[in-house]
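Our preliminary data section would be incomplete without showing what the modeling component actually yields. Below, a chain of 321 amino acids is followed by its predicted structure, encoded as tokens that our downstream tools consume directly.
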Amino acid sequence: MRFLTTLASVAFLTAAISSGAIPGTVPQAEAQAATQKTHRFTLEDYKRRYILYTPRGADRLAGDRPLVLVLHGGGGKDRGMVNVTKKRWNQLADQYGFYVAYPNALDGHWDFGEGKVSNGLKRRVDDLAYFDFVINDVSARANIDQSRVFATGISRGGQASYFLACNMPERIRAVMPVTMPLPDFMGNECKKGPPVGIAIMNGTADPIVPYDGGQIKVFRKTRGLVRSTDATVNLWRTRNQCGQRPTSTRHIDEKDDGTSVDIYDWANCRGAPVMLYRVNGGGHTWASGKQYLRERRIGKTSYEIDAADEGWKFFSRFSAR
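Predicted structure:
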């Protein structure tokens, strides 16, 4: 009987392949190919750009779809963030049917406002207007659910995630800052406001941005003060009206990579959920991403989780309004 069942399965699969229709998939000839395009424009007399990833089969997606902004770190570029994350956001977009935008900072540094932080810029830029433009431009090109726009980023891109959550809560539903507690200068603007979901992912052995707060140090130069990770979580728990204790905790230590991950989830919130990924032994890196500099400079990359996978799990908790 098992042999006959196997023969039947093989015959069915052979017929499906010969007809170009594999069960559970969209036939290649019928599905729109994925595209990754750079879009250029002028804003405030500056030439700006961003990369938009359109998932495979976008022409067959029903209804408005989520948008995820993936933000590079200081000195980086949009293309670099595609590589740092090993294109995992693009793969997830193909699987779950959302759009991914990779914004690009001017001169490699996001600008958070005059006098608030020294970021190496030779000219001032209104990046809040830039992010607003990018969301609008993507929305003009694709059917975007305006209630499911999310942001994530590493290092200074993590700062940009806080910047968006605290200054554009009407547009950004949730964020995931990576390797970055809350910058101290953003404390007042982030303390109060509408609820915004947040998942914070920081390494305890980050040699650049201290997990327990203090000065950011890049090649022995200080780059601004950050609050501790615990203080950052507490600020967002208060803002989102969450309980004092997490509703669930999980410990992951399955890989022999010198790291482990503790996950704390506050789902008991009147506003929006708060999560903390404590990457024990982790450095200034994107979990399961590219080790873009030597370990002695940026610390270990954890392979216990994939930051993109965890980010999408978190963002997918937010349904359309």
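The two ends are 50 Å apart (CA to CA). Residues 89 and 308 are 6 Å apart (CA to CA). Preliminary results of this kind motivate Aim 1 of the renewal.
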